[in-house]
Amino acid sequence: MSAVHVVVPEGVHDPEHPSGGNTYDRKICAGLTALGWSVHEHAVMGRWPSPDASALAALADVLAEIPDRSVVLLDGLVASTVPQLLVPQTGRLCLVVLVHMPLGGTREGAVLEAAAAVIATSDWTRRWLLDTHGLPAARVQVAKPGVDPAAPAEGTPGGGELLCVGAYTQAKGYDVLLAALVGVRDLRWRCRCVGTLTGDSTFVDHLGRAASAVGIEDRVRFTGPLAGPELDHAYASADVLVLASRAETYGMVVTEALARGLPVIATAVGGLPEALGHAGEGSRPGLLVPPGDPERFAVALRCWLTDAELRQRLRWAALERRGTLSPWSDTSMRLSRVLAGVTP
After folding, report:
1. For residue 44, which phi and psi values (nearest 5 degrees)?
2. Which domain, by its residues, includes 49?
3. Could you tell me the CATH number of the domain that includes residue 87?
4. For 103-107, 212-216, 261-265, 336-340, which range has the lowest pLDDT when averaged over its residues?
5. For residues 165 and 199, is the Cβ–Cβ distance under 8 A?
């Protein structure tokens, strides 16, 4: 049986801090185990990718305990800022870096250049890494996130149940979303925002005050993180996913919505159009708008809310796209092939 040591950030199993990266890490550890790998998970303390001295010491201890000639799969949030710890290990360990979110910079470049293989979670991320760091193309592989099967959401006749799933950060464009919702406040809708607080603890309060300032506080609900049946219910109760992100390497919430047959209104940024994909005859199962443009986002929302024929077309396209989504077992199989191909 082959063995792999998987190094992940602390909190990967914390239900209070769900994220696409954490979900990916958990799914592939389970998937590799199912494929016969002996998976040794190492959760490293610290606020990655900005570790302090104690976090660096914890990672150094983890690396020192891994036997020589082992295959080590490192989450990029841990790996990408610590070449001083990882590059010297390349003569002893076979390092593979899983890049959920590229950070850029010379430190990341040094780590990826030293790695035996790099795994990106989208074609867009792979292109970005190749263009930014000049890595050999054969060394960078893609293992897109899978999705769990789910029953189609029933939807409502008016299409006014909007759902946003994403951490409460500037990168997710909540300010853009709120401004766009103001632009359609003459129409009937409600928006549920499901997210994790990952940074400034006052940001959610700021969002609530911003909603109050423009008179939509009774129509926008910030629920905090949801998981399991509660998150399933949020998707099942929605008509459409709305996502105004400024940056996305893939956008797992998009495929989670599509797995329920939910159309998506989102920004055409990073790997998000790739996650949205196409249905039959090349049609999109949603609407894409430029990032950082609340007026264009509001136009898309207005089209959705006022055009019943458009809603039906997008729903049918989402249901078609649902049938083309890949399971997590495919992701694990791709990772397994990469890991099996590197030489300790």
Report:
1. -105, 125
2. 3-146+326-341
3. 3.40.50.2000
4. 212-216
5. no
